[in-house]
Structure formats: structure tokens, C-alpha cells
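look at this record:
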Amino acid sequence: MKFGKHYYDGFETKWRDKLESIASESGIQSLLIMRSTPTHMVAVVSAGPKRDTYHPGDEGPKSVNPGCHKLYCEQVVNDRAPLHVPDATADSEWRGNEDLVKFGLGTYLGYPIEVQGEVLGTVCALHDKPYDFDAGPRSLRKALERLKTEIERDLEHAA
């Protein structure tokens, strides 16, 4: 399977409005689609009030780089499983995370994007304070699970 750093040409444009709509409905600070490389996590789509924190193409160094703390999305990719960090400030494993230290985003929920048995990246939400991902009739957790499935179908079709 051959996908580039940004999955495919036009991927960001195709998904941006959908993510902005979900971010607006939920009030979440940051909603992202990320791409995993061996050494970095790359922002592909960024939405929400903190969209300017992560521009498409911005790279966060993984813990394989000297002096770098493990990233939330890196953990999702490594474990091939969802990750929920309710409050990184109260969690010794995540206190040094770049998203918290640099941007004040200490609440995280992310899902792996998997195509043909390969984890390519993540879809994730970040917030600056504890956030109830299950609240209300429009649960952000359910919205992210649906979004994950839609993205995986899109990438399967593009593969």
C-alpha cells in the first residue's frame, strides 16, 4: 500500500469540513487526523478552535527521537488500540507529553486508523480541561468511532 505523508492528494480538503462540523457541535478544542511515520506523527487535517496549533504538515517527534516524550497518538499506533487520557496533569505517564507541555492539551481520545492490517495513523480529539466524551445525544466518542470507520473506508478505496 502506497500512501504519502498526507495520505493522498486532496485528503485534507475532503475531510476538513467534516471535522470542523464535529468540532463545532462538540465544543472540543482540537480534532485531528494524523499520519504516522517511523519518527514522527504528522498532522494531516486539523479542526476546532485550536486548529492553528497543528497545521497540516506539522510534525511531532516520537519517543524514538532522543529527549522526546511519547506522544498520545504514538501510543495509539504502537498499541493498535484506542487511548483515553482523562487528565494528563494527574497522570505521571503523560505529564511530559508535548501536547500538554507545549499547548496545554491534557485531555485526549484517539483511535487507530488501520487499512489492510497496517496502522497508518490516528483520528483524535484533544481538550484543555477534562471533557466528557460520552455526554449528550451526540457523543463525541461515537462520532470519532464513526469517523474512524469512514476514513478507513476512504483509504481502502484509495489504496
Remarks:
- The mean pLDDT is 94.
- The domain at 11-158 is CATH 3.30.450.40 (Beta-Lactamase).
- Residues 23 and 52 are 14 Å apart (CA to CA).
- The beta strands are 30-36, 40-47, 59-61, 83-85, 107-115, 118-127.
